[in-house]
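Researcher: Here's a chain I'd like modeled. Treat it as a single chain, no partners, no ligands.
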Amino acid sequence: MSERDPRDPASWPLLFTVAEANALLPEIVPLLMEMRARKVELDAALAALETLTPAMRLNGHAAEARALEARIHDLSMELATGVDHLRDQGIEIKSIDHGLIDFPSVRGGQVVFLCWRLGEGPAIRYWHEIEAGFAGRRALGDG
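Model: Modeled as a single isolated chain. Structure tokens:
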């Protein structure tokens, strides 16, 4: 696979118009909400497992540790499936915790990201240059 170059839209496997990205949001929002809930569960299971010291595992907590490890594995697999589903559609997931995603798009002849996160409403309103990240977001009306 060739390296993706923001100056060369042809190096990107999939690019979205604003309308195309907006049309995907109704399908993506429930998935992002589910992924965020699973991530909260995963974080809690990891924290609970961390509290079980090696000595505790040998002193009656081995079953609890195994159950937590199994749940962590299951949650990790579910999250990986969700991430893969988004990537297969050409969507970049930037933060599961915040439901932050980017859609590669062309603006001014260069590839930029259309940027959206859970809670921002039914339409994408922001974009940023590839290297700028979330902090460099600008309103779609801005040049």
